[in-house]
UniProtKB/TrEMBL annotation:
Keywords: ATP-binding, Kinase, Nucleotide-binding, Serine/threonine-protein kinase, Transferase, Ubl conjugation pathway. It catalyses: L-seryl-[protein] + ATP = O-phospho-L-seryl-[protein] + ADP + H(+); S-ubiquitinyl-[E2 ubiquitin-conjugating enzyme]-L-cysteine + [acceptor protein]-L-lysine = [E2 ubiquitin-conjugating enzyme]-L-cysteine + N(6)-ubiquitinyl-[acceptor protein]-L-lysine; L-threonyl-[protein] + ATP = O-phospho-L-threonyl-[protein] + ADP + H(+). It comes from Glycine max. PANTHER family: OS02G0152300 PROTEIN, PROTEIN KINASE SUPERFAMILY PROTEIN. Residues 201-464 form the Protein kinase domain. One of its GO terms (molecular function) is protein serine/threonine kinase activity. This is Protein kinase domain-containing protein.
Length: 470
């Protein structure tokens, strides 16, 4: 879908197989769309795909399969056609439905989204704090109107242009943090200092956005810093804030981003500013940044593994990151790697950290495509869960490709003796024998079962260090 779609095309209807999706489509057709207008029906797939299903899923989504057409789209297609509405059909992939829809809305300048009110169904039980309609009301940009439909009637409308002052909203959502913030190693800032440092959360100073909230560049104590601000009313926000403080205030490592301070009353976290931004942006050459040479890529891979091993060897309890991906690796001016975003991290009892019977956690968290499939299915968490995410990222470092299906792509290329064809073409001097060794190691990290993945300390890191020192 092009982002410059006509005005009539800037309406999205989120659909699933529940009755409220039917109500949402009917309401949109009867009250929002004119005859001969068009809209986009979007279903977000949250289940893991088998690697051979699709090689690459573009961020803009894909056409539905035959099975998905019958399950989700055909009833709505016919209804729209009878009313003279052209319905485009799209499937997005993400473990977080509202996050996928929000990204699509932002990328395509969507002005209306219609969604059925959430019900206590299997999806809600699986992701206990997931309420898609409520999350959308909170997260979509103020240029988009959210229409929440229940049983054919409008349950809630958040009109375009409606937004909360970030400071006021944060204040209401984080009352519990103030009393729980305890760290002698961190600077404590008040909201006035944070507002001045970010020019009152000026969008021109915004340098990133994560699940936790936006990140702004600023200056505090005459030092350039990155300030992460909690999204208003984010579910689990208080726990993520406290976890980030707990993990980063007690550990220091050259391959971990340094937390400098916090404003607990408003859920703001202050980090060292890392000049070259994220590995994701540099791999995909955002803003036309130069290609990363293969030697630097091998160095980055080795440093990520070094930082991860440090987390996994933390005493008295290993730390499992749970959200390793290129967007959470920052690169300084010398392209040294630093792991960030430990808000989803979990402490795992050392007695079970490496066993097949892993520490049990109820709900899988992380980013779709990087989540350990065994953890996603069972909720059983251990350090090997991070190894799967590491494997996907290692493959992206040499291919420069999106995560969806990258393991299948590389495995197939190796089997055919054509690895060079899937390596990042911007690098013209890949050392093929060593890169093949690297790719095979990364594929082992992507094994479906935890027990089949190699050990980080004794297998993965020594090999990555060998390649780094070529």
């Amino acid at each position: 879908m092009a982002s410059n779609a006509g005005e009539e095309e800037s309406t999205v209807i989120a659909i699933d197989s529940d009755r409220n999706s039917l109500h949402a489509v009917k309401w949109a057709v009867e009250h929002l769309l004119k005859k001969n207008a068009s809209c986009t029906l979007i279903h977000v797939r949250t289940k893991t795909l088998y690697s051979h299903d699709f090689e690459v899923i573009p961020k803009q989504g894909r056409l539905p399969t035959e099975e998905e057409l019958h399950q989700f789209f055909l009833p709505f297609r016919g209804f729209c056609a009878r009313k003279g509405i052209v319905a485009k059909e799209l499937v997005l992939h993400d473990i977080d439905v509202s996050n996928a829809l929000t990204d699509y809305i932002i990328d395509n300048s969507i002005s209306n989204i219609v969604v059925g009110a959430s019900r206590w169904n299997a999806l809600i039980r699986k992701f206990k704090d997931a309420d898609v309609a409520t999350s959308l009301v909170r997260s979509v940009p103020e240029t988009c109107t959210v229409h929440v439909i229940s049983k054919g009637k409008v349950q809630n409308i958040r009109p375009a242009g409606h937004s909360q002052n970030i400071s006021n909203a944060l204040s209401k959502s984080l009352k519990g943090i103030k009393g729980s913030f305890q760290s002698e190693d961190l600077n404590r800032y008040n909201i006035k200092e944070i507002e001045v440092a970010t020019n009152y959360f000026d969008n021109a100073l915004k340098i990133g956005e994560g699940g936790y909230g936006p990140v702004f560049k600023g200056v505090l104590d005459h030092t350039e810093v990155a300030i992460k601000a909690l999204k208003p009313d984010i579910s689990q926000g208080e726990r993520q804030f406290q976890q980030e403080v707990n993990v980063l205030s007690t550990i220091k490592h050259p391959n971990m981003v340094q937390l400098l301070g916090a404003c607990p009353e408003y859920g703001c976290l202050v980090y060292e500013y890392i000049e070259n931004g994220s590995l994701e942006d540099r791999l995909f050459q955002k803003d036309n940044t130069p290609t990363i040479p293969w030697k630097v890529r091998f160095k980055i891979a080795s440093e990520i593994a070094t930082g991860l091993l440090f987390l996994h060897q933390t005493k008295p309890e290993p730390v499992v990151h749970r959200d390793l991906k290129p967007a959470n690796i920052l690169l300084d001016r010398n392209y040294a790697s630093k792991i960030t975003d430990v808000g989803l991290a979990r402490l795992v009892p050392p007695s079970v950290a490496n066993k097949t019977t892993q520490y049990h956690k109820t709900t899988a968290a992380g980013t779709f495509c990087y989540i350990d499939p065994e953890y996603q299915q069972t909720g059983l968490l251990g350090v090997k869960s991070d190894i799967y995410s590491l494997g996907v990222m290692l493959l992206q470092i040499i291919t420069g490709k999106p995560p969806m299906g990258v393991a299948h792509l590389v495995e197939e290329a190796i089997d055919k003796g054509k690895l060079q064809e899937v390596l990042d073409p911007n690098v013209t001097d890949w050392p093929l024998e060593e890169t093949l060794s690297y790719a095979r190691l990364a594929l082992k990290c992507c094994e479906m079962r935890k027990r089949d993945r190699p050990d980080l300390r004794s297998v993965i890191l020594p090999e990555l260090n060998r390649l780094r020192n070529l």
